[in-house]
Amino acid sequence: MKLIFLGPPGAGKGTQATGVSSHLRVPHISTGDMFRAAIKNETPTGLEAKRYMDAGQLVPDSVVVDMVRERLAMPDCANGYLLDGFPRTVEQARALDEIATPDAVVDIEVPDERLLARLTGRRVCSKCNGTFHVSKVADEKVCPVCGGELYQRDDDKPATISNRLGVYHEQTAPLIGYYAGLGKLKRIDVGALPLYDGDSRAEDVFQAILASLE
Ligand code: AP5
Ligand code: MG
Questions:
Q1: What DSSP assignment string belongs to 143-176?
Q2: What is the CA radius of gyration of the chain?
Q3: % pLDDT > 90, the chain
Q4: What pLDDT, on the 0 to 100 scale, is given for residue 193?
Q5: Whose CA is nearest to atom 8 of ligand 1?
Q6: In what order do the strands lie in the sheet with 131-133?
Q7: What CA–CA distance (Å, rounded) separates 214 from 211?
Q8: CA neighbor of 9 nearest in space, from 189, 131, 99
Q9: Does residue 192 sit in helix, strand or coil?
Q10: Is the CB of 86 inside a 6 Å radius of any atom of ligand 1?
Q11: Ligand lying nearest the CA atom of residue 33
Q12: Per annotation, catalytic residue among 2, 122, 123, 186
């Protein structure tokens, strides 16, 4: 299955992609994670991406599309993949359609005012790449899964978060209409919260995503 997770920063795309990709046995491809790895390895792509990411802006379409095209050509993508954080503009979506049309696009929505607390409290493991909220770990420096060191992402500062939310509404939210028009959009339904079902317990969101794909 070729799947896309759409949603604002902090909606839980990465959190849900971990479980859903292993459930569906397809690779989890996060363009944000790919850029962070490129920055760590000081590659030319990483150096270029860093200044956009630090400002909460999108990396130019041409850079992202070339990176994704290369990744999707790898053998582990032959039976499908889960794209997290791509596409993020209509131009990227059109470029993806030329590579391979997605089977389904899951939209995870959470109101902006809830996203700030999620993102400022997020910690990521430098060893296993797991994502946690500070309120859910015993020690905010130690990964509860593998014991690795937890760190805070450079773009999880309030001013940058506010830019990222603005960019989402302006440049990425139009993809909801784009994929609805193509009949690919899946909205999750947890029950209690019309439109903002992503603002529910992570376990309930996970079940709702699987149900939306049936
Ligand atoms: P990227 O890494 O993709 O960041 P993002 O889209 O801003 O999304 P996040 O990773 O911040 O949020 P998420 O939805 O994955 O939430 P998470 O599961 O971590 O991109 C970073 C940057 O790279 C971009 O700004 C851009 O510069 C560049 N970039 C990447 N792709 C690009 C592209 N295609 N084009 C151009 N530029 C691109 O959860 C967040 C927090 O909430 C965690 O603490 C988690 O524990 C908690 N949480 C999760 N689910 C729940 C729940 N149900 N209830 C309560 N808390 C929850
Ligand atoms: Mg993420």
A1: -TTT-PBEE--TT-SHHHHHHHHHHIIIIITHHH
A2: 16
A3: 95
A4: 65
A5: 9
A6: 131-133, 122-125, 150-151
A7: 5
A8: 131
A9: coil
A10: yes
A11: 1
A12: 122
